[in-house]
Design brief:
Blueprint (H helix, E strand, L loop, with lengths): L1 H8 L29 E7 L8 E3 L7 E2 L6 E3 L1 H13 L1 E7 L5 H7 L4 E7 L2 H4 L2 E3 L4 E2 L2 E6 L17 E3 L5 H6 L7 E2 L6 H10 L4 E5 H10 L3 E4 L15 E7 L3 H11 L4 H14 L6
Parallel strand pairs: 1-5, 1-6, 10-11, 10-12
Antiparallel strand pairs: 2-4, 3-4, 6-14, 7-14, 8-14, 9-12, 9-13
Helix pairs in contact: 2-8, 7-9
């Protein structure tokens, strides 16, 4: 735990030193004018999905520069990336990439891995490999405190709700259809857009995971988290709550390194790190 606390409070890691995208090799670094044995872990994320990741204007709370940008990234995914890079002896670079483009970025080799709150689903495993989970996220519904659904304790009590969630997520594809007579609206491009839709009254509720809901409630105090009792909640497979790091198929060397580093953490460590991320998130979710 002391090791995690140190990493969370540490300053910037060496990041963005290389000009252009660099592979995980020991090539000469022209910006330093000499040879270096340092390897670089190029990590992609949305940088807009608090508390997993977000964009901010400075390096406060240990934020890391976003490559090819004047902005910085922070959040649970950044904290985890810093920890893992330190464990395996790599420098770290963070790349801001849209949600739908993340699989292509890792498949093409533009980045080494994606740490972005992705569920380890069978469908995704057809095109990428995943590490062991780096978080376990229960799925909840979120509504405003002025809707007819505030205080609901079962999925059946959400019947007829106008609802949405983020595109290409288990929340939208697998969870919303479980609501009886749900009026499912088009999916949003990002988690912040989903929350704006709820706050504006465009929808009655959204489906998301507990960390996202907790972070949203800090930004929108009028939001109410509907965490259903067991037996009357959403039915999800284990793959839908296991959050992993995706890599290109066959990148076994990096996969083994990351799994080895993840093995040094416990689920309690995950929760501590996530709570720290929620605490330091900005008041706006970019």
């Amino acid at each position: 735990m002391k090791k995690i606390a140190y990493l969370l409070s540490a300053g910037l890691l060496m990041c963005g030193a290389l000009a252009g995208l660099t592979g995980c090799g020991g090539d000469e670094n022209p910006t330093t004018g000499g040879d270096t044995d340092a390897k670089v872990l190029r990590v992609a994320m949305e940088c807009g999905y608090a508390p997993y990741n977000w964009t901010q204007n400075d390096d406060a709370n240990g934020a890391v520069p976003i490559a090819d940008s004047t902005s910085y990234a922070n959040g649970y995914d950044v904290m985890m990336a810093k920890y893992l890079a330190d464990q395996i002896g790599y420098d770290l670079e963070i790349y801001k990439i849209d949600w739908d483009s993340l699989p292509l970025a890792v498949q093409s080799g533009a980045v080494d891995c994606v740490i972005a709150g992705q569920s380890i689903t069978a469908e995704r495993l057809e095109t990428v490999d995943f590490t062991t989970p780096y978080y376990y996220a229960s799925i909840v519904a979120v509504t405003r405190d002025d809707t007819a659904y505030a205080g609901a304790t079962t999925v059946d009590e959400l019947a007829g709700a106008v609802c949405t969630s983020q595109i290409n997520t288990v929340w939208y594809d697998a969870v919303l259809p479980q609501i009886p007579d749900a009026k499912i609206q088009p999916a949003t491009e990002s988690a912040p857009q989903m929350l704006v839709a709820l706050n504006s009254g465009a929808v009655d509720l959204v489906a998301t995971d507990m960390p996202t809901a907790m972070a949203a409630q800090m930004v929108y105090p009028n939001f109410q988290i509907l965490d259903m009792a067991e037996g009357s909640d959403f039915v999800v497979d284990e793959e839908e709550i296991n959050i992993g790091i995706s890599l290109a198929k066959g990148n076994t060397e990096l996969l083994d390194l990351l799994n080895g580093a993840l093995a040094t953490l416990t689920t309690e460590d995950f929760e501590t790190m996530m709570n720290d991320a929620i605490t330091v998130q900005p008041l706006t979710q970019e």
